[in-house]
């Protein structure tokens, strides 16, 4: 049975559904933050990968991963909850779910997008690692302002590119948009 929405209210419904999905994902992640999976994601996947990139770029730094810490002889950073990029991943997931794409395009877009965001976040962590070594104020600027804006903007760019590339697979069979006639 099709759902009938006024053309002007459909975007509002999408925004509400987006926020519900995003909030639910954040709530679930908050519940799981101290789980073995969260520790694995932060310590083993995020920190060890970032340290690998640092050692690839600057082998003389002898950077090591120790739990949530990326350290070297000249300093390091602590990768805590929120620094693993999960919140941006949740933004992408919620946006893909409400996007006007086929289920297949959404699933593939989420998977490709999560990998994309993971590597963007790795770049962010490596940049912050170098920034803290050079100047703590620069680190704070990169950490608190520049990197989050770039990460969200590049994720939005990915989403727009994905939707424009796979927009021919739009599935509107479950939504009937009717035009309101006004006097």
Can you tag this structure with a few keywords?
183 residues; mainly alpha; three-stranded antiparallel β-sheet; two-stranded parallel sheet; 5 helices
Your description of this structure?
The protein is mainly alpha-helical and 183 residues long. It is 66% helix and 10% strand. The chain has 5 helices and 5 strands, in the order E-H-H-E-E-E-H-H-H-E. The protein has a 3-stranded antiparallel β-sheet with strand order 2-3-4, with helices on one face. Strands 1-5 form a two-stranded parallel ribbon. A hairpin with a 2-residue loop joins strand 2 and strand 3. Helix 1 runs antiparallel to helix 3. The relative contact order is 0.15.
Could you give a quick summary of the protein structure above?
This protein has 183 residues and is mostly helical. It has helices at residues 10-32, 36-57, 86-98, 103-134, 136-165; strands at 3-6, 64-66, 69-72, 75-78, 175-178. The strands form two sheets. A three-stranded antiparallel beta sheet has the order 2-3-4, covered by helices on one side. A two-stranded parallel sheet has the order 1-5.
């Amino acid at each position: 049975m099709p759902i009938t929405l006024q053309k002007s209210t459909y975007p509002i419904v999408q925004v509400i559904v987006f926020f519900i999905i995003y909030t639910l994902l954040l709530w679930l992640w908050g519940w799981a933050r101290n789980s073995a999976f969260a520790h694995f994601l932060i310590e083993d996947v995020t920190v060890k990968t970032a340290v690998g990139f640092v050692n690839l770029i600057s082998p003389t730094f002898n950077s090591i991963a120790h739990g949530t810490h990326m350290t070297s002889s000249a300093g390091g950073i602590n990768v805590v909850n929120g620094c693993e990029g999960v919140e941006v991943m949740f933004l992408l997931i919620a946006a893909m779910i409400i996007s006007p794409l086929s289920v297949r395009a959404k699933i593939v877009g989420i998977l490709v997008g999560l990998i994309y965001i993971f590597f963007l976040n790795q770049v962010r962590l490596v940049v912050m690692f170098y920034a803290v070594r050079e100047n703590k104020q620069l680190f704070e600027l990169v950490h608190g302002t520049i990197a989050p804006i770039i990460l969200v903007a590049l994720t939005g760019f990915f989403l727009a590119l994905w939707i424009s590339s796979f927009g021919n697979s739009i599935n509107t069979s479950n939504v009937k948009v009717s035009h309101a006639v006004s006097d």
